[in-house]
Amino acid sequence: MDKRLMSVVRWEILSRPAPCDDCQHTTKCALDLKACRVFQHYISTGSFLSNRPRTPTRGIFNEIFYEDEPNFKDPSEERKRLRKQFRLEIL
């Protein structure tokens, strides 16, 4: 796919409402590498129901992002670094 088309596709995706926009779990999911079924459905279909319950887990995150990665290793050091960085930014 050419770069211009990729830019249009990226803009189209990022300009739409997403389930994480108003979710109380957004920061925790990002730091702890978690996701919920609402986000998983959004990734698969591009749509979501905002009134669905959201219970993020590491298992769902792994299903979305690492199911095709046979040599996946838990990036715990990166998580520690991100947590420290996030704490410093909010102080």
Which key terms come to mind for this protein?
about 90 residues; mainly alpha; 5 helices; about 55% helix; about 0% strand; globular
Write up this protein.
The protein has helices at residues 3-15, 26-32, 37-45, 58-65, 76-90. With 91 residues, it is mainly alpha-helical. It has one domain. 9% of the residues are buried.
Order of helices and strands: HHHHH
Shape: globular
Terminal-residue CA separation? 42 Å
Low-confidence stretches: none
Given the helix and strand composition, which structural class is it?
Answer: mainly alpha
The protein's oligomeric status is: single chain
Average pLDDT over all residues: 77
Question: What is the domain tally?
Answer: 1
Largest sheet: none
Radius of gyration: 15 Å
Q: What is the strand tally? A: 0
Helix share, percent? 55-70%
Question: What secondary-structure arrangement, pairings included, does this model have?
Answer:
Blueprint: H1 3-15, H2 26-32, H3 37-45, H4 58-65, H5 76-90
Give a brief outline of the structure.
By secondary structure, the chain is mostly helical. It has helices spanning 3-15, 26-32, 37-45, 58-65, 76-90.
